[in-house]
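Long-time lurker. I teach an intro course on protein structure, and each term I like to show students one example going from raw sequence to a predicted 3D structure in token notation. This year I'd like something fresh instead of my usual example. Would anyone be willing to generate the tokens for the chain below so I can use it in lecture? Attribution to the forum is fine with me.
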Amino acid sequence: MTSTTKAIYRSLSAKTTLFIQICKEFWQFADDGERFYEKVVHSFLPALCTKWREAGTNHIVTIVLMSRVFYDQSEIDYAAGPLRRDDEGRWYKDFYRIINDLEVIHDWKSTLVSLKDSFWAFQRDILLTHHYHQASLGHSSTSLQAPPLPRLVGQLSYAHDGPILEALNLSLNPTETHYIDRSLSLTGASTIIITPGTGYFRVSKHLLRLTTTRLVDQGFSVDLITLTKPPLHQSPIFCFWGVEPELKAGAGGTGSLRSMDPLWGGDDDPHESLGKERTVFWWEPFWMSVSFWNKQMDLPFREDRYVTEAVTYSPPRLTKSNRAGSSLARRCMRFAH
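-- Reply from a regular --
Happy to contribute to a lecture. Here you go:
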């Protein structure tokens, strides 16, 4: 140490934001027979709280539920509100609910009980109660017609279609000017996303570019917690539609390397990209770290036990059109055995 050495004091406590994704996989069973939402409240969060208690931290925690609901064309009129369309032309709406807001939680038992109840209440509200209130607001009390009956509208998205980037931008808004009059009691900000997926997400290219720019400017990183085993592909990874970038000569006769990145080049100018073929690109976020939580509470792990690597969804109903393919599949299975 010299006279020019500057001492930096940091606190172990931080402002932590927990995003929990509610999707179709959230209610499914894992390989050990436990549902994914049970893994959140029975294994992961208790283990996380134990680590915080052992480290002597005093985090300010915010817990937010997030979900995306897709609607069919016949449900648009009933699902009134700020509907949006994705790159594939599907109508959707994003929902968020704050469970705990900037609270220092010492007793997590009561919080976990209310959080488990909030999972079911949140799904009921976004699929039933919300749309019934929207339809009731548009119905006049003096009208002779009967008020609309409540009905389920929309369906939860899969994990790879969730509003991951939208949630990150919401968490970045309060820290946009973190360098001005900063509180020294909390010297850190952490964002944790809990998902039942594998770390693969389909996102918008322009929103991904905006999120990357904001995260780099603010110097924050994101921790992704997946409740599955490590997949057979790279994780985390984002998928988006774009135009193949072309190398353009600059003033010095050399092209920009950044323009060849699919995220930053290709379709910057809408007039130049008009009429060009769009393709799918895969991009690995350098600002996101992933951890796989697959702790089995009731079934201890054994080396000689067979572990599946993929989830098999319900097979389609057998019809005349696919009966031939089904018989071929059975012959292949006999050959494999």
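Some talking points for your students: DSSP finds five helices and eleven strands in the chain. Residues 15-139+147-198+219-229+286-298 form one domain.
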